[in-house]
Amino acid sequence: MSEEDRSQLHQVQEYRKIVLLYEALDEQIDAFLTAHGGHTEKMSADEVAQYRQMARRRDDLLNQMRAMEHQLNINEDE
Predict the structure, then answer these.
(1) Bigger pLDDT: 42 or 60?
(2) Measured between alpha carbons, how far is 65 from 78 in angstroms, rounded to an integer?
(3) 62 contact partners, CB below 8 Å, separation of at least 6
(4) Residue 68 and residue 18 in contact, taking contact as beta carbons nearer than 8 Å
(5) Cα–Cα distance, 59 to 30 (Å, whole number)
(6) How many C-beta neighbours within 10 Å does residue 37 have?
(7) Which of its termini does the chain have fewer beta carbons within 10 Å around, N or C?
(8) Of 16, 24, 23, 25, whose CA–CA distance to 69 is shortest?
């Protein structure tokens, strides 16, 4: 296996890891919202802060995924 192939394999593995982290966090956020009636109005200030922190982390993971998709030339439209 060439160095380029190893590098690309490593990038794909990193991408997969980020996708799994994103999906797990998304499920955690869904469960958190469900436990609070589906919206933030029924949350305490601390719970809203926790929700926002999780949502920001999920957004960061999504941005990382998109950047890696571009880098790996992954196009879901094809």
Answers:
(1) 60
(2) 17
(3) 22
(4) yes
(5) 14
(6) 10
(7) C
(8) 16
What's the pLDDT at 76?
Answer: 59
Q: Give me the amino acid identity at 36.
A: H
- Determine the Cα–Cα distance for residues 12 and 18; give it in Å rounded to an integer: 10
Give how far Cα 30 sits from Cα of 6, 21, 24, 46, 73, Å.
36, 14, 10, 17, 30
Give rounded-to-5 percent helix, strand, coil for the chain.
80, 0, 20
Q: What is the pLDDT of residues 13-49, one digit of tens each?
A: 999 999 999 999 999 999 999 999 998 898 999 999 9
Taking residues 38-67, report their average pLDDT. Answer: 95
